[in-house]
Amino acid sequence: MKKFQILFYSFLLLSISSCSSNDDEGGSENPSLEAETRMNVAYGSNPQQVYDLYLPANRNTSDTKLVFLIHGGGWTGGDKNDMIAFVQYIQANHPDKAIVNVNYVLADETHFAFPNQFNDIQAIVQKLTSEREELQINPTFGMIGTSAGAHLAMMHDSKFDNGNQVVFVADIVGPTDFNDPFYVDNFPIEEHLNQLVDQNAYPAGTDFLTELSPITHVGNMTSPTCMFYGTVDPLVPEENGENMKLKLDQNGIQNDLRIYEGSHGNDWSVEAYTELQTIIDSYITTYLD
């Protein structure tokens, strides 16, 4: 994943100067407000429970919606700093949007990933919603996640977004279905998930391969979703994208799927990165304007 971030984010940075910004037409602006950046805003007592918030100038509670960035790292690693190029790209190409770039508490020997990381995403959404007036934002979110971060975004959207505040998800190599034979054949997947789960937080006998799969929860709460996968990804099979598309189609949910030659995003072509960028841009423009 780290190599993917270096290559893909380098491409994003190179493309910032060549892409024009979008101009919003609707809504009233607040010209008294300048752009503001708030780093490491705490949303809990754990030192990892922080996010960076980028607020645009002239923001208001009607038009200033948010792009919500969630890093990857197998639920045990990674950091919001891995998403900095996304921040810079969005600021350059969608300057009217607020951005929240989040950390969640990583799983280790003393802290379970699930449901704690789901709870972290919910806590951030709730905090930003409660501060709508003070921040002058509209707490409507487009979520962009990479790998494990994409998994968290999809799970939040379909299972935990009770207020329907998420309007789209961009899933970059995120696992959608742990029951896929790929996982059973290549990993001790059930054992791995059991180590990540606080089993006392779930009903006895819960099938975690199913419960933790975003595909299980697709329904009327699920938002439009764009998905990007590699043909020879050793971590997340392209079938996860194909099966997720089928489930979204069955539920009448707008979606786009692209499968690129290569691995976990680390060796995709420039043309692939360009298309990915264009599709995410279109989702931001379509669903956050």
TrEMBL record:
InterPro entries: AB_hydrolase_fold, BD-FAE-like_dom, GDXG_lipolytic_enzyme. Residues 1-21 form the signal peptide. SUPFAM superfamilies: alpha/beta-Hydrolases. Keywords: Hydrolase, Signal. PROSITE patterns: PROKAR_LIPOPROTEIN. The keyword Hydrolase applies. GO terms for molecular function: hydrolase activity. Coiled coil: none annotated. Residues 52-248 form the BD-FAE-like domain. PANTHER family: AB HYDROLASE SUPERFAMILY PROTEIN C4A8.06C. This is Alpha/beta hydrolase. It comes from Moheibacter lacus.
